[in-house]
Design goal:
The chain is an alpha+beta fold and 138 residues long. Helix content is 34%, strand content 22%.
Length: 138
């Protein structure tokens, strides 16, 4: 995912300078601070710089499905829908506002909600996530 311009060094890793494209009517200063915090927490700007995306990893397919359902219910109640792709033990989430087009407070709110719910469901580092293994031989 293309992000960005020169990077700055934090105490643990390089965090790229971000240049999101905000939805018209957005409070850009506040959204910029929120977007920076989300990027520092593992989110990335999408290729168009108009949305946020992240992959969450879990120990089981059931936990990944639980996370997808929880986020889906909240997105329905807020009338803001993401693109979510579920795999064996991971869920990739992409938030963007379609009208007006660009990154909005709806996206940053839901990204923070995803982080909170992933923690509650039991998200793990990718290296610890269960991988799909071949079926045992009969």
């Amino acid at each position: 995912m293309a992000n960005l311009t020169p990077s700055k060094q934090t105490s643990t890793r390089v965090v790229p300078e971000i240049q999101p494209r905000f939805a018209p009517g957005s409070t850009e200063a506040q959204l910029m601070a929120e977007a920076k915090a989300l990027v520092e927490g593992g989110w990335k700007l999408d290729d168009e710089q108009r949305g946020l995306e992240k992959t969450f990893h879990f120990n089981t397919y059931t936990k990944a499905l639980d996370f997808l359902q929880i986020v889906g219910i909240r997105s329905k109640s807020r009338n803001h829908h993401s693109v979510m792709t579920i795999k064996y033990s991971s869920v990739h989430v992409h938030w963007t506002t379609h009208y007006p087009r660009g990154l909005s407070a709806k996206d940053t709110f839901m990204a923070r909600y995803c982080d909170s719910q992933a923690k509650d469901v039991g998200a793990v580092d990718e290296s610890l996530a269960q991988k799909c293994a071949p079926a045992p031989k009969a």
